[in-house]
Amino acid sequence: MSYYITTVGQDSHRFKEGTGEGEGIMLGGVLIPCDMAFDANSDGDVLLHAVTNAISGYTCVNVLGGAADKLCLEQGIRDSSVYIAEALKDVHGAQILHVSATIECLKPKLMPYIPKMRSRIASLLDIPELSVGITATTGEGLTGFGRGEGVQVFVLISWKVDD
Predict the structure, then answer these.
(1) DSSP run (H or E) holding 159
(2) Pick from 64, 63, 54, 62: which is nearest to 5 by CA?
(3) DSSP code, position 74
(4) How remote is the C-alpha of 47 from its chain's centroid?
(5) What confidence score (pLDDT) does residue 46 get?
(6) Cβ neighbours of residue 85 closer than 8 Å, sequence gap 6 or more
(7) Beta-carbon count within 10 A of 39 CB
(8) Secondary structure (3-state) at 34
(9) Out of 32, 48, 63, 160, which could bridge 87 as a Cys pair, Cβ 3.0 to 4.6 Å?
(10) Domain at 43, CATH number
């Protein structure tokens, strides 16, 4: 017998004060040109962190704040795709059917990068690119993210679980 569940993940990072020109941010495993940088220990990829947290919502193993901290702080592994791989170790046969992400930020403008982000996430999760949806919004500037202070992401993952 199969059943279906949905999990949610969230992450956010603020931008560092006084970051210089030419820096960029990692988002969805894609380097996006931006004159700001995230204030983070890792690469700060809030989209991959939110995906990791949504996977943890299924496995009940909190990778961020646990294994990811050890990988980042003790071993110097800052690549957030490694944290997704760590989270997937505890999935035990459940199948990811669809990922839906919404990103809130004022900058950078994300539309040109969404296809690359979808492709990268699909590759990391071994699912079809059509099974990854990403939207972006400024939220009409009602939060700090929409006013340009950082980036916030929410992710839903739909799963098929076989008994």
Answers:
(1) strand 150-162
(2) 54
(3) I
(4) 2
(5) 96
(6) 124
(7) 13
(8) coil
(9) 63
(10) 3.30.1330.50
Rounded Cα–Cα distance for residues 100 and 130 (Å)? 11
Q: Are strands 132-137 and 95-104 parallel, antiparallel or unpaired?
A: parallel
Distance CA 84, CA 51 (A): 7
Number of helices (H) and strands (E), helices first, in the chain?
4, 6
Of 162, 157, 163, 161, the residue nearest 56 (C-alpha): 157
In this prediction, residue 111 has a pLDDT band, given cuts at 50, 70 and 90, of: very high
* Identity of the amino acid at 129: E
Structure confidence by residue, pLDDT tens digits, 48-75:
999 999 999 999 999 887 766 776 667 6
Q: How far apart are CA 116 and CA 104, in angstroms?
A: 18
- For residue 18, give both structure tokens: 């006084």
- Cα–Cα distance between 52 and 147 in angstroms, integer? 26
How many domains is the chain partitioned into structurally? Answer: 1
Domain boundaries, position 16: 2-162
Can you give the pTM of this predicted structure?
0.93
Q: Does a cis peptide bond (omega within 30 degrees of 0) precede residue 128?
A: no
